Amino acid sequence: MDICSLQKLVPIHGVLMGINIYENWEKVEKFQARSDDWVIATYPKAGTTWACEIVDMIYSGGDPEKCRRDAIYNRVPYLEFQIPGMPSGVEQLDATPSPRLVKTHLPIQLMPNSFWEKNSKIIYVARNAKDVAVSYYFFHQIVKALPDPGPWDVFLDNYIKGNVSYGSWHDHVKGWWEKRHDYNILYLFYEDLKENPKREIRKMLDFLEKEISDDILEKIVYHTSFDVMKTNDMVNYKTIPNEILDQSTTSFMRKGIAGDWKNHFTVAQNEKFDEDYKRKMSDTELHFRTEI
Ligand code: PPS
């Protein structure tokens, strides 16, 4: 299979997604959620892997050895994942005994209905739009199944317009925010997790109805810190072959900070971004910090 043939984006109910996901959409739509599924939902690059590792540490009672049982993409299968020749996310999840951990980047309106029917617990993590833009740009350079991002200026323009995989960041974060009280959703922010991981992990524990000692909580904070995760091959995606994810120019675990956008946005780009942002976010109370 030529991985570059997967780079085409096609709208699914108006949201751009990889052609591979589009062609297998029916299987995702019909996915059978279970009431004891724990789901981590995000717009790409919002701290998904971080949240997945935290949740698996909670699931494993704070034992890092248990979390080394497999790579993160097998411990927390990616619901809509679909690359020919590899098991799809749906296949992986169908074969996983309960309780399962599930990763998804789907906007809320595209979530399979069974998640609402089963009232599964969903942790949504949102990250400020500017840091996501930068992280997503570098990610496009290393993932062979994503379209060539072109120069930063071009990518940023496409990102602002929602012409990227998973569509508009604004619609994604607002969509999940607006429905957070209608379903079993805990809405968290990357910047808060960065500022005070202990406090935010406590919120996860309360939401998941898990009690652990302070010692174990400290262990989870340490094991899921950026520096530790960067060198942990079970989470840094180094186990993925170069033909799919080539980390020779930039790492998946790249910087892991809030505010890196300042090193990449020009003054003009920032002004244009802010003007557009103000308009698109004028109808929500949702507030993001672009630095901490
Ligand atoms: S993906 O591909 O959409 O699932 O990517 P995702 O995991 O959502 O996002 C990757 C970014 O998250 C950063 N990251 C972390 N930051 C802080 N602490 C920890 N532990 C951590 N783990 C991952 C990762 O470095 C990517 O952000 P950037 O800004 O590119 O460094």
Topology:
Blueprint: E1 9-12, E2 15-18, H1 19-23, H2 25-29, E3 38-42, H3 48-59, H4 64-67, H5 72-75, H6 89-94, E4 101-104, H7 114-118, E5 121-126, H8 129-142, H9 152-161, H10 169-178, E6 185-189, H11 190-195, H12 197-208, H13 214-223, H14 226-230, H15 267-280
Parallel strand pairs: 3-4, 3-5, 5-6
Antiparallel strand pairs: 1-2
The structure holds 3'-phosphate-adenosine-5'-phosphate sulfate (PPS).
The site of 3'-phosphate-adenosine-5'-phosphate sulfate has 21 residues, from helix 3, helix 8 and helix 14.
Tell me what the structure shows:
Helix content is 42%, strand content 10%. It is an alpha/beta fold and 292 residues long. The termini are far apart. The mean pLDDT is 97. It has a single domain (13-280), classed as Rossmann fold (3-Layer(aba) Sandwich). The protein is globular, with a radius of gyration of 18 Å. It is built from 15 helices and six strands. The strands form two sheets. Strands 4-3-5-6 form a four-stranded parallel β-sheet, with helices on both faces. Strands 1-2 form a two-stranded antiparallel sheet. It binds 3'-phosphate-adenosine-5'-phosphate sulfate (PPS). 3'-phosphate-adenosine-5'-phosphate sulfate binds next to α3, α8 and α14.
What's this entry about, in short?
The protein has 292 residues and is an alpha/beta fold. It has helices spanning 19-23, 25-29, 48-59, 64-67, 72-75, 89-94, 114-118, 129-142, 152-161, 169-178, 190-195, 197-208, 214-223, 226-230, 267-280; strands spanning 9-12, 15-18, 38-42, 101-104, 121-126, 185-189.
